[in-house]
Amino acid sequence: MRLLLEQVTVEVQGDSEQVDVTLHWAGGVQSQHRVSRPVARYEQLSTYPRLLARIEQLRRDAMSLEQISAHLNREAFYPPKRTDQFNGGMIARLLSRRGLHGPRPRAMVKAGVLEPHAYWLSD
Length: 123
Description:
Blueprint: E1 5-12, E2 18-25, E3 30-36, H1 48-60, H2 65-74, H3 88-97, H4 106-109
Antiparallel strand pairs: 1-2, 2-3
Helix pairs in contact: 1-2, 2-3
């Protein structure tokens, strides 16, 4: 390979997972490639705004955290930190960091659980 490749240029797009790699081959030919690198935080993902919007949409559809994670996995979203797939716990932590919560447990939404004019702390 050292005889064929003259130079490799690597350019990270901001602090995101997106990396542009340019291979400078002997003879003057260049090939460009986009690859992904692992990142530590959700905020570094180039898909972060779309990811949050999709989670919010799925929450409005009253899906459980596990159902949300299954949808995200099918739709080719991916989490940071060298993990391939989402799970319900990851969605719960992501929502919690943003001050949001997943759907309430059934026991909290049953009629008669709270007295009139009583509220949960999360309300």
